[in-house]
Amino acid sequence: MDRIKICFLAAILSLIQLGHAFYLPGSYPHKYEVGDYLNVKVNSLTSIETEMPFSYYSLPFCQPPEGIKDSAENLGELLMGDRIENSPYRFKMFKNESEIFLCQTEKLSGDGFKLLKKRIDEMYQVNPMLDNLPAIRYTKKDGYVLRWTGYPVGIKVQDVYYVFNHLKFKVLVHKYEEAANVARVMGTGDAAEVIPTMGKGKESDEPGYMVVGFEVVPCSFAHNADSTKKLKMYERYTTPIKCDSTSVSMSVKEGQSIVFSYEVSFEESDIKWPSRWDAYLKMEGSKVHWFSILNSLMVITFLAGIVLVIFLRTVRRDLTRYEELDKEAQAQMNEELSGWKLVVGDVFRAPSNPSLLCVMVGDGVQILGMGVVTILFAALGFMSPASRGTLITGMLFFYMILGIAAGYVAVRLWRTIGCGEHRGWMSVAWKAACFFPGIAFLILTTLNFLLWGSHSTGAIPFSLFVILILLWFCISVPLTLIGGYFGARAPHIEFPVRTNQIPREIPAQKYPSWLLVLGAGTLPFGTLFIELFFIMSSIWMGRVYYVFGFLFVVMILLVVVCAEVSLVLTYMHLCVEDYKWWWKSFFASGSVAIYIFIYSINYLVFDLKSLSGPVSATLYLGYSLFMVLAIMLATGTVGFLSSFWFVHYLFSSVKLD
Q1: Coil, helix or strand for 216?
Q2: Residue 550 pLDDT > 90, yes or no?
C-alpha cells in the first residue's frame, strides 16, 4: 500500500513538473529592460502572384555579422514554407536611433540584377518579425487606411526599378508591470526565467517593457556611395536621411551596389499584451461579414429543418399505415404497391467494390475527426496566429492518432458487409492506412518537384520527407492496424432481413439516379460557400484567419445537412425500388467536393487574376485537388453512415415476409 502511495505521489510530482516546463509558443510576455537588444528576424519572401516563397537572402540584402542562422521551426512551419532567419536589424529597447548605416552590397551582377527585377515584377514582400510579431504597414487609398503585413522588395515606375533600401521602424511597447499578474497566471517554467515575478528585490524597481506593436515604413533613398565606403555596420550615416514613402529615388542598375540603412523609434502604447494581435486580425479584406455568415447559417438551418420535418413525417406515415394493416392486407399491399417494401430481400446486398467503400469510409472518419478536433482546439485558442505552424502540426498529430478509428470502422464495416466473415480484414486495414496518405503523398511529391525546380523555400526538404514517411509507417500505419484488430474482434452489425440469392431487377428510371446524386451536393455547399471565401483568402492571399468559432458551427451544420441530404436521397431511391444505395449515399453528400473544386477554379480565375505562370497555377490546382479529396471522404462518410443507420432502422421497424 505504501509503495502505491509513493508511486502515485511521484506521478503527481512528475505531472506538476511537466506543467511547469510547458508553454505555448508566443503566448507569454517577454520582458525587456531599457537598453536590451531587440533582434529582428525575417521570414520567407512571399507573393500572391506566384504563391512560391523564397529565402530572404536569395536577394542581395545585408547579412548579419554573426552569419545567417535558422530559427528553430516546427513541422507545421516547414510544411507551410516558412523559413525564419536572423537579420542584421537590431534595436535597443526604448532608444530611438536614426540614419543607421547597415551595409553596402557588392555590385549587382547580370544574374543578380535580373533576379531582383523579376522579384519586383512579381510583387514579392519582405516579412520582418520582432518578438514574434510580423511588421505591419499602413497605406492610404481613397480616404481609407489599409493594413498590410511586410513591405514590397521594390517598385517599378515608368520602366525603372526602384528598391526600398531604407526602413523606418516604429516599435510599440507597453509597461510590463501592468501585465505581471497575467504573466504569473500564464506562467510556466521557461517563462518564469524570462519573466521574474514582481516581488521584493532590486529588479522589481527597474522599468520593463513588452513589445505590443511593430510597424514599418519602406523608403527608397539614394545614398552617396562614396560617403559610405568607410562606414561600418551600425554607424551613423553622415547626412540626414529623409524617409518619404510617396517618392522613390534608389534605382536599381546592373553593376551598381545598393546601400541599406534604417531608423527606429519607440512609442509607449496603451495596447495590452493579450490585444497585440488585434491589428492583424482587422486587416483590410479579412473582416468577416458577421451578418452575412449569420444569415447564411439561419437560412441553412431553416432549410435543413424543413427537410427533416418533411422526411420524418413521410417515413412515419408510411410505417404507421403499413403496421395498421393485418397480414392479409399486408400481403395484398406488397403485391399492389411499389416502394421500399419490395426491395426487402435486396436492400442489404453487398455493393460493388466493398473493400474500397470500407476503406473510404474509414479514412473519412479519420479526416472528419481530425477536422472537428483541430477546429475545436483552434476555437478554444490553442492554435492562435502567434503560434506559427501549430495548426498544421496539430492536424498531423490528430490525423495519426485517429488512425485507430479509421482501422476500426473500415474493418467492422467490412465484416458487416460480409455477414461476419473475418477473412481479408488485414488487407482492408492496410488499405485504410495507405489509401488517402498515399494519394496525398503522390500529389505533394509532384508539387514538391515543381517547387524544388523553382528553388522555393516552399519545397519540403528531403529530411522532412523522410520524417513524414517515418511518421506514416511507424505511427499512423500501426495505429490503423491496431484499430483494424479491434474492429475484427468487435461483433459485426447484423442485418434485420435476409438477402435473396437472386438479385431483383431494378425497374427503368425516368431520370438518371446519378444526376440526382450529383445535384444533392448543392445543399451542403450552401453551408460552406461564404466561409470558403475567407478560408481561401487566408491560404492564398496571406490574410489571417481567426474565426474558428464560426467555422466550428459551420462544420457541425455541414455534418447535419450532409446526413439529411443523404437520408432523403436514399429514401427516394428505395421508393423507386433501386436498392443500390451504398455508393449513392456516399456520393450524395460527397458530391459537395465537386462544387468546391469548381469554386476553387472560379477563385483562381476571378480572385487570383494576378497569379502568374503555369507552375503557380499547377500548385494552386494541386493543393485544391488535395483539399477536395479530403472533403469528399469526410462528407461522403457522414452521408453513408447516416444512410446505413436509417436503412437498418427502417427495415428493423417493420416485419416483412
Answers
A1: strand
A2: no
